[in-house]
UniProtKB/TrEMBL annotation:
InterPro entries: DDP-like_NUDIX (IPR047198), NUDIX_hydrolase-like_dom_sf (IPR015797), NUDIX_hydrolase_dom (IPR000086). This is 8-oxo-dGTP pyrophosphatase MutT (NUDIX family). Gene3D superfamilies: Nucleoside Triphosphate Pyrophosphohydrolase. It holds the Pfam family NUDIX. Residues 16-148 form the Nudix hydrolase domain. It comes from the Bacteria. The keyword Hydrolase applies. GO terms for cellular component: cytoplasm. Its cofactor is Mg(2+).
Amino acid sequence: MAATKKKAVRKAKNGQRIRQVAAIPFRLNARGDVEVMLVTSRTTRRFIVPKGWPMKGKSGRKAATIEAREEAGVLGKTLKEPAGTYSYWKRLANRFVRVDVIVYLLEVTEELADWQEAKRRQRAWLPAADAATLIDEPDLSTLVANLMIAKPEPLDLA
């Protein structure tokens, strides 16, 4: 994965936009409300969704699924179509670069007690509205908030 990051940094130095993939892990609680899992970033400790660099030979969807397992310790079904995109400024050693992130929804079926980045990150299940409030990137916050709206309503057959 380090080679992918180096390639991305090279692209950024040449003024090109760079890309990442992300997963929004979600589940329905007992009342049928959408909950989202957020994780803390390693350096700033802000709440974010699991994200990372594209992986050679893997689709964006598959890479997002792997990032969710590594960073949040969750397994599940990643939906085929991206939920949307957002952009943010990534801090590198001596500059900031603009990164475009393609976001996938991951319906969590299993939470691992131990996972790759467990010692470096905290994770939390939150109602979608609360999660959206805690996320700094406005476009990502909107994607998370829209999960509440997308919840299927029961059919009224009366």
